[in-house]
């Protein structure tokens, strides 16, 4: 594999993963790295998509200090330890904005993206980003032992063989190295059809970014409540409180109560 021109730390990280990647298929031209996120207000009250578009880059939790899961992106934290292990220490002493960003591999153009559990919106990155990305299965939190780069994707065989009980866990984690500039590295912004933040959509249009919509999601509280074993009865109760009776308003969870 020809290593793209990258900062030293990123080049070392990519080489360290390539050295552990099992031989396998080379990714096809349809493959994309997809970065999922919740486009509405984050815990600090800022509209996330507008922040990304205004700042002109997508950065990791080490910079934002916010996220959809555990907030452990600091020296000695769990995420720091995952990256130390996965990238052989390449990022141990770099500024936060040099670190990779996390996404998932979409090999064939799934309209919902590659890992929708991490957000209803996504940035579909340009094909060239694949060559400077690394891949693992399962996700970093599970201490993966299966690694991949674009032309050594034995990790896909491990994905196919894995017994995955939850379809939302059936994805290959991706790490894009060398920074993600917006719009330069982005092929399209993909949002839920209910997303109606006109300011964000106007920013995307002004930047020349195509905006696509995926088919959308809909489930009533009764449907969720009929499967309490999936995420637990507390999730079913939360769905009933958020959605209420009748058809759901898919805009409401992102906006909070009211």
Beta-strand share of residues: 15-25%
Helix content estimate: 25-40%
What's the total count of β strands? Answer: 10
From the spread of the alpha carbons, the general shape counts as: globular
Detailed description of the structure:
The chain is an alpha+beta fold. It is built from 10 helices and 10 strands. The protein has helices at residues 8-20, 48-55, 61-64, 78-86, 155-161, 198-206, 221-225, 228-231, 233-243, 252-255; strands spanning 32-37, 57-58, 101-106, 121-125, 133-137, 146-148, 173-176, 180-181, 186-191, 211-213. It has an 8-stranded mixed sheet, sandwiched between helices. Helix 6 (198-206) links the parallel strand 9 (186-191) and strand 10. Helix 2 packs parallel to helix 6 (198-206). The longest helix has 13 residues, at 8-20. The radius of gyration is 19 Å and the shape is globular. The chain starts with 7 loop residues before the first helix and ends with a helix. The relative contact order is 0.18. InterPro entries: DUF3626. It holds the Pfam family DUF3626.
